[in-house]
Design goal:
heterodimer, A: 6-stranded mixed β-sheet, globular, B: mainly alpha
Chain lengths: 256, 243
Amino acid sequence: MIEIHNIHKTFGDKKVLDGISGVFETGKTNLLLGASGTGKSVLLKCIVGLVKPDLGSVTFDGTYFTNNKLDIRQEIRRKIGMLFQSSALFDSMTVEQNVEFPLKMLSKMPKDERLDRVNFCLKRVGLENANRKMPSELSGGMKKRVGIARAIAPDCTYLFCDEPNSGLDPLTALKIDGLIKEITEEYNITTIVVTHDMNSVIEIGDKIMFLYEGKKLWEGTSDNILDSDVKELNEFIFANRLMRDAKKVEDEGGNL
Amino acid sequence: MLQHFGKYLLFMSSLFTRTESPRILFNRTIDEAILIGINSIAIVAIVSTFIGAVTCVQVSYNLNNAFIPRSTIGFMVREMTILELAPTITSIVLAGKVGSNIAGGLGTMQITEQVDALEVMGINSSSYLVLPKILASLFVFPLLVILAMFLSIAGGYVAGTVTDALTAQEYISGIRGDFVPYNILFALIKSVVFAFLISSISSFRGYFTSGGALEVGAASTTAVTNSVIAVLIADFVCAQLLL
């Protein structure tokens, strides 16, 4: 379980996060939902420690993370797997080396065991025969899969996904969403997904936090999101639906 | 300016906190040494051979006096090459080649979140990525400068004898006369100082890149210009302090 308390972050004159608190539960896919520029990715980076909040704290399973001793922060970080928006695969390494990398750096596993684990993780994400491929040879969806395989390779306890569907077609996006949910439930890990895609909300959102202009405006589940009386959230849902309907018309060959 | 310098010092100190295991550091350093060293041999060889040849021809043109022995040309080629041309020109060439490569590579890793990926794994990205580059440069630059010294003197020999500026015997007599071994040490000390400046400044510029492809290009350019200026200033300081 991850708890955040009163997170504030300002870049120059712009207040990006304004006192956000919440709990992200274990074994569930927790979504950070909101339009672009509302501070979702910054909040995620504050949680994993890539950005230092001006104020507030983050706790991983009861262990204080923000501003704690470096050793403790490192210990927690080694339990974190993260899928980046751009996949962030090391482009000088093959798929196999990318997935093996955290094992090589963070564990004392012998080479053959490492390779077994790599093959297991690649199989888990449906990329059995991609070991020797370079990231430049992969499609967007495959890169995301390799990113997930690399994130789960060292038996992570916490999985963070920054817009896992960005740049993917709807079908591949659904598959990636499904994979994230399956992995979360299978390994009973705490997963936080940053998204602005309502499909993801419906498909995988066990718990949803809606951000607007750096503030948490709503929190709930995918079952009660449509009953919300928050104007900004309803507008966001409406805009998403409108986009989806427009896309459907366009896909069917109609004119908008 | 002062703010940048302070940030640079903090960046340098971060390289030595949470370093990876000696085995990983050693392997990474060897990889970087191969990338920096092997890939730079050709350009260093071409530049230094021609510098030696041009130096010989121009010194010969300026020493067209019956009272000055022709072997002085060989002597001057050797002195200029060892003291200044081999370490400084080689380093300036390497600032362009290696410096831009380091800044571009790190800048790209930064904007594509690869650096963040390392940090999230609990790896000190600056130490993992930058320290091996600096160590490899410290090891490889002196070797390239030694190569440049040999090839410059050889270039001078070929140019001098082919253009009949002097005989082979006069050239060899010139390069062997009044030899001060300390000059070699001085050149090698300079090359180590230049290696540190080029690799660390380029890494600093690349590591703190933010934005997109345009900023990566700008970081590479800034890395090269800053490195060249730093090399020239350090050249003067070394000459004042060590000669």
